[in-house]
Each structure stands twice: as structure tokens, then as C-alpha cells.
Amino acid sequence: MDTESRKKEVLNLAEDVSAIDIDLLFKSMERYKEGINDLTTLKMCFWCDAEKSEELKSQGNDFFKSHLFEKAIQCYTKSIELDGTNYYSRSNRSLCYSKKKDYGNALKDAEVVM
Predict the structure, then answer these.
(1) Distance separating alpha carbons of residues 100 and 68, to the nearest angstrom
(2) This prediction's pTM
(3) Residues of 7-43 as b/e, b for ≥16 C-beta within 10 angstroms?
């Protein structure tokens, strides 16, 4: 994506500043400084729902305790979609994949967490 396209995308996102999560915005800027130059984290500033994400993580934990790994994965996935910085959900999803012997997906999630 060229610089102009990126600027336009950021400006479009900025139109709804009332939904910005300031802490997440600062995290996004830190990620950018670390060389992670995608817009994923910046987008999360606008669409993050940390409270609902935490609820879904908790539901996933309950399913995990009951050895219902597929249902736990579904909850953790929704949690991650709502708050991509919720690394506990991603770590837990990695463990579920591992329990299901889906080591490829387990490794992908583990690498993101690390």
C-alpha cells in the first residue's frame, strides 16, 4: 500500500474520533516505532471492545475447563476480533489448538504472543 493510500485510510478512520481508545492508540504508536508498520493496531483503536473481549475470554476459559476446545477456540477468536491486543485470548487459543493437535495454528498464535 502506498503512502497516499495509507494516509487516506488513516484519515477515514480518524473521522470517528469519539470511539478512540487512547491507550490503544499509544500502543499503536509504539508498535509503529518498533517497525510494525501495519494499520491493524491503529484500526483497533476505533473498533476495540475490551469489555466484551474479556467476557468472551472468560467464556472460552469455561469451555476449556470442560475440555470443549472447539467452543473455547470460537470464544477466543471472537475475543481477539474485538480486541486484538488481548494476548491472553490468543495464548489460550494457542493452547486449545495444541490440545487438538493442531500444531500449525498453535504455533501461529504463540508466535504473535511472543
Answers:
(1) 10
(2) 0.61
(3) eeeeeebeeeeeeebeebbebbeebeeeeeeeeebbb
DSSP 3-14: HHHHHHHHHHHH
**Would you kindly state where each structural domain of the chain is located, as residue ranges?**
3-47, 50-113
Looking up cell 500502543 gives 27
The structural architecture, per CATH, of the domain 50-113 is Alpha Horseshoe (1.25)
CA distance readout (Å), 101 to 17, 70, 73, 85, 95: 43, 12, 13, 25, 10
pLDDT in tens, 60-93: 999 999 999 999 999 999 998 888 788 899 999 9
